[in-house]
Amino acid sequence: MARADIDLRRLSRLAAALVLVIAVAVGSVFGLLHHWRLPPGGDAPGSAGLQAVPAPRLQSAPQDDLAAYRAEQRRQLDAVGWEDRAQGRVRIPVADAIELVAQGKGVR
Hints:
Layout: H1 8-35, H2 62-78, E1 81-84, E2 89-91, H3 94-102
Antiparallel strand pairs: 1-2
């Protein structure tokens, strides 16, 4: 016949183990906090070489910036010019490049 009673010995061991784990975790946290404590009026260790991060540039009219960016990109796509003069690479409009590739002249 099965026992219906709870084994108090196993339950007390489990509770003791749980209390021990919690005590070790809390002790570790307090130990780390004590170890990392800053001296009064002092900076964090190793922060002497760090630079302050600049504040973000907020855009009051991002639509205007986006339109200017797209216009510059469009101007570069539609313009003829040197991409890299030393290597002999030029920039031509996309429509002209498609036409050259269709004619078989796109590759040297």
